[in-house]
């Protein structure tokens, strides 16, 4: 696959990618996105800066868009775990950027260093994506 348009991603996601100037998928994205969009399990290894987050975030956003339901209170529809709070914050930022045209899309963080009351309020309402 040489273009994000070939993956069958929803128009709001493609629009966000175009605004971010993402035109051609990286090798990890080209190999992962088609499988993940088919709900296949995927394990990928690639160097820093190769687009691993988009490789799993884009299919997740596409799935959430295709299965529009509100998240239940005190729950999340997607949980993404990472080893550091910095990476969790970057993952949250990526979901927000790639999903900027998906409304509503609630992305929250559960990490040390942010006010706990804000995190608890977000979770009480329910979120689509929780990066922790």
Structure, described:
The mean pLDDT is 94. This protein starts with 10 loop residues before the first helix and ends with a strand. The protein is built from 5 helices and 3 strands. It is globular, with a radius of gyration of 15 Å. The protein is mainly alpha-helical and 132 residues long. Strands 1-3-2 form a 3-stranded parallel beta sheet, sandwiched between helices. Helix 3 packs across helix 4. It has helices spanning 11-19, 27-37, 52-66, 85-98, 116-125; strands at 76-80, 107-109, 127-131.
Spans with pLDDT under 50 lasting ≥5 residues?
A: none
Residue-averaged pLDDT: 94
Helix percent band: 40-55%
Structural class, judged by helices and strands? mainly alpha
- What is the overall silhouette? globular
Give the strand line-up of the largest sheet. Answer: 1-3-2
Radius of gyration: 15 Å
CA(first)-CA(last) distance: 31 Å
Largest beta-sheet details: 3 strands, parallel
> Proportion of β residues?
5-15%
The counted number of beta strands is 3
Number of helices: 5
Helices and strands, in order, run as: HHHEHEHE
